[in-house]
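Worked problem 6 (solution included).
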Amino acid sequence: MEQDIFRAEAEELLDDLEAALLELEARPDDRELVNRVFRALHTVKGSGKMFGFDAIAAFVHQVETVYDAVRDGRLTVDGELISRTLAARDVVRRLLRDEDVPEASQEAILAGFSARLTATASRPAAPSSRAELARPAEIAAGVGS
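Solution. The predicted structure is:
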């Protein structure tokens, strides 16, 4: 019974995820949409873990990590990221429905996300406020030391 409730709620979250991703494709800098995508992923992951869908939770955790990097400004949204996330959504939907999803398919999607994260790992997070932008100048001027 509880697993059926999780499945129904996860399906709704996956529908919202798809809608948010399609909107995000048109407005890749929209922070609210990024947060909406992250929340959908986070909820599917957490609820999945709670209701014993460990494979779904582990898979979604990897995708969620990518959107955490987007939220931090370490990764930008582009068409490839949207396409890969939609493919990940399809995998989760199939897993929810107890359909066979080859490990190789899951690993290929996650490898693409991992490559994106690795490529950006050496970049510092983007400053999130004017205060952070001004900080290097303050340090050079001796302010705040």
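Discussion: The chain is about 75% helix and 0% strand.
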